[in-house]
Specification:
Blueprint: H1 2-21, H2 30-33, H3 36-43, E1 48-51, E2 54-60, E3 64-66, E4 73-79, E5 85-90, E6 96-101, E7 107-108, E8 117-122, E9 126-130, H4 144-152, E10 161-169, E11 171-172, E12 185-193
Parallel strand pairs: 3-12
Antiparallel strand pairs: 1-2, 2-4, 4-9, 5-8, 5-11, 6-7, 6-10, 10-12
Length: about 190
């Protein structure tokens, strides 16, 4: 009985020790708290995308801002193909759209109309697309008031935190649209401090 009690006591001590030590603590920050895809993109910005027949750039003067400071950025698209002129097909509201997230609970997903309109590019021509807020929220969203104010203000001003901002091509390379979507995107991490 003594030997059994001693063994049980040893097992109990081992279990308590394992529970008390717990797992390895993870550092705070985007890589541990954010969506892993968002964290990966925050850690590896992509300011230029080159893919036939376009070159896309994310134009941002700096990546650290003070809370309440306007964040000014744009995306540019240059036609680099062989033809003298090239037509793309996409939404009239956004041939290039923007998304913004902190990887947790701040998401501006971007929105565009579903119409199909042409846009012509000349070889070597660069078109600039300024950042525009777009997205939505439900009337029963607990943060509806925040989002209403966010979308009502033209300038992009963010609370303190780290954000992934991305520009995406919203067009197809042919009028048929099927199997011709152009997959261009550029992104970077924006840090907003108090």
């Amino acid at each position: 009985m003594n030997r059994l009690s001693g063994l049980a006591l040893l097992w109990l001590a081992a279990i308590v020790l394992l529970i008390a030590c717990g797992g390895e603590e993870r550092p705070e920050g985007p890589s541990s708290t954010a969506n892993p895809i968002v964290a990966e993109r925050m850690d590896n910005p992509k300011l230029v995308h080159k893919g036939e027949p376009f070159e896309m750039r994310l134009n941002v003067e700096k990546t650290t801002y003070k809370a309440g400071e306007p964040i000014v950025l744009s995306a540019s698209l240059t036609y680099t193909g062989d033809e003298k002129e090239f037509t793309v097909w996409g939404s009239s509201s956004a041939k290039v759209g923007f998304t913004l997230t902190d990887g947790k609970d701040f998401d501006m997903d971007g929105a565009s109309t579903s119409d199909l309109t042409p846009m012509k590019f000349a070889r070597g021509e660069t078109m600039e697309f300024p950042f525009v807020k777009s997205g939505g929220y439900g009337s029963d969203d607990p943060d509806a008031e925040y989002w209403r104010a966010f979308y009502a203000e033209k300038e992009l001003k963010l609370p303190a935190g780290q954000y992934l901002i991305a520009a995406h091509c919203n067009f197809s390379l042919t009028q048929d649209v099927v199997d011709s979507h152009y997959d261009g995107d550029v992104y970077t991490k924006i840090t907003v401090v108090e």
